[in-house]
Automatic annotation (TrEMBL):
This protein's record includes keyword Coiled coil: no
The protein's name: AAA family ATPase
Family annotation (SMART domains): AAA (SM00382)
Organism: Colwellia ponticola
Keyword annotations: Membrane, Transmembrane, Transmembrane helix
GO annotation, cellular component aspect: type II protein secretion system complex
Length: 534
């Protein structure tokens, strides 16, 4: 193949876990340190998660190679087992003899307990490592927790490391597994390699294969990181395919174009999925931008508009009495079509118009309304020409409704005046109801704003350093009670905590807000949404 063409002593990008090619980045060494800490003298559970191909299994093998000589380890690679099958596999790994034909859960559990006690008496630590643990059934995880109940005054007799994909974290958030989640003494999520770490990873593997020159140019390295997203396993596939393609093309150096062609061969559906995800994000961003543009344009256009048509509010009554109020920017006169039942209107800018229909014979009247800016609410005057005139201040949405009183006017029947007054009273009632609803809405807004100023400058948990996040203990918030007088409480890890209470030596509850809680951990303050499980 290409080994002789590029003067290599070995194929540097095989996906098999060869210890000679072990590359420990800063995050890999940090993950190993967390697992080692979790296996301290107290024991319990340790958790390592990460995406497919990030090097979780490699770290577990490195951990096993560094175990003390007084440690007996069991490594389970196929966790798709029932509770009974898991216990039987553990017995096989620990060299425990049992009758397979008569094996039951109780028999296997007793055998394992005897082995754990015997190892402890001989100063031997017992370790169980389960890879691909996201496939474990909840009842199997619960059985593992029951095994760890065997302990002395100072340590657990069985130490367990769970290694799996991010789905394992979601599995452990189940309510029926909260007791197990609380026993996890160390957890670490392994992130993909950065661009710099990926370049170091490629150069390291080439150096182990005795490569004396650069086989990938800068453009090729950048494209490899983009396509592999920093995942070592995908990087191996891409590099191997790119070197093979360069060999077939008689190219001494791999360039960006060669990497793109090799990606189609090596990744296939994964490459298509990455493109689809990218295109989907781009399409969503475009649609969101267009939607925001039209929303802002509509808001701007609505603000520019003024009411140019009368807004008529019809109030049904026995004799069809109608009251309507409107505003107009231009002066105009409207004459009724039916002289027996309609009233002529005289309109001008910012005038309130009143229209009255009645079945009683009424002479043609002109109802004039003076400009609202000049008169005060409730003023009613009689003019010498017998016209009824009503004046009021310009409506204000944040003020109380204006109470109008109608008095006798020359040439206007008592029945018409009574209907007119009833319509005004009903309109005032509607205004009061609307004002009350607006006040209630504002009260709800004020309630939601409670504590907003108190979170200024407080980081959410996701913005804390990875070191602090990994050191943070398990938190199970089951109840969140807010009180404006500072007497609220939260139920976390099965106990009620008030403002100022310590969850442990390093973790304190600072503030309980309506929809979140503010905590302090090792001198760093952060916020968590209410009823969060960590």
């Amino acid at each position: 193949m290409y080994r002789n063409f590029f003067s290599l002593s070995d194929l540097p990008f095989s996906i098999s876990p060869d210890p000679n090619y072990l590359f420990m980045s800063d995050r890999h060494r940090e993950a190993l340190s967390h697992l080692t800490y979790g296996l301290g003298e107290t024991g319990g559970f340790a958790l390592l998660t990460g995406e497919v191909g990030t090097g979780k299994t490699t770290i577990s093998r490195c951990l096993m190679a560094q175990l003390p000589v007084n440690t007996q380890a069991a490594f389970i690679l196929n966790p798709t087992l029932s509770s009974k099958e898991l216990l039987a596999t553990l017995c096989d790994e620990l060299k425990i003899r049992y009758r397979k034909t008569e094996a039951s859960l109780k028999t296997l559990t007793d055998k394992i307990s005897e082995k754990l006690l015997k190892n402890h008496q001989n100063d031997i630590n017992t370790l169980l490592i389960i890879d691909e643990a996201q496939h474990l059934q909840p009842e199997v995880l619960e059985q593992l927790r029951l095994l760890t109940n065997l302990e002395t005054n100072t340590k657990k007799l069985l130490q367990v490391i769970l290694i799996g994909q991010p789905e394992l974290q979601q599995l452990l958030q189940r309510r029926d597994l909260r007791q197990l989640a609380q026993r996890i003494t160390a957890r670490y999520h392994l992130m993909p390699l950065t661009k710099l770490e990926l370049n170091q990873y490629i150069q390291h593997r080439l150096a182990v294969a005795n490569c004396t020159r650069a086989l990938f140019d800068k453009g090729a390295l950048a494209k490899i990181h983009q396509l592999s997203q920093g995942i070592p396993r995908l990087t191996n596939l891409l590099c191997h395919s790119a070197l093979l393609l360069a060999y077939n093309q008689n190219d001494s150096v791999v360039n960006k174009k060669t990497v793109m062609a090799a990606a189609v061969r090596a990744l296939g559906d994964d490459l298509t999925a990455n493109k689809t995800n990218y295109n989907g994000v781009l399409l969503f961003a475009t649609l969101l931008t267009v939607a925001v543009f039209f929303a802002l344009a509509g808001f701007w256009w609505g603000e520019r508009q003024t009411a140019v048509e009368p807004v008529v509010s019809t109030i049904p009554a026995t004799n069809k009495v109608t009251l309507s109020t409107a505003y107009s920017n231009t002066e105009q006169d409207k004459t009724a079509l039916n002289e027996a039942e309609q009233v002529r209107f005289a309109q001008s800018e910012n005038f309130a118009l009143v229209k009255a229909d009645t079945n009683d014979p009424v002479q043609q009247e002109t109802l004039k309304v003076l400009p609202m800016k000049k008169l005060t609410g409730g003023d009613i005057t009689n003019e010498p020409d017998g016209a009824l005139m009503v004046s009021a201040a310009k409506p204000n949405r944040q003020k109380e409704a204006i109470n109008y009183q109608v008095t006798q006017a020359e040439g206007v029947s008592n029945d018409l005046l009574a209907r007119f007054q009833a319509a005004i009273a009903e309109t005032a009632t509607d205004h009061k109801i609307a004002s009350k609803l607006n006040n209630n809405d504002q009260a709800d807004v004020n309630l939601l704003a409670v504590g907003k100023d108190e979170t200024i400058g407080v980081k959410p948990l996701s913005q804390l350093s990875a070191k602090l996040q990994n050191a943070l203990p398990s938190l199970q918030f089951e109840q969140h009670i807010y009180s404006s007088d500072g007497q609220g409480w939260v139920t976390v890890n099965g106990r009620d905590r008030y403002e100022g209470d310590q969850i442990n030596d390093d973790l304190r509850v600072d503030k309980i807000l309506p929809q979140q809680v503010i905590l302090s951990f090792k001198g760093e303050q952060f916020s968590l949404p209410a009823l969060t499980n960590w």
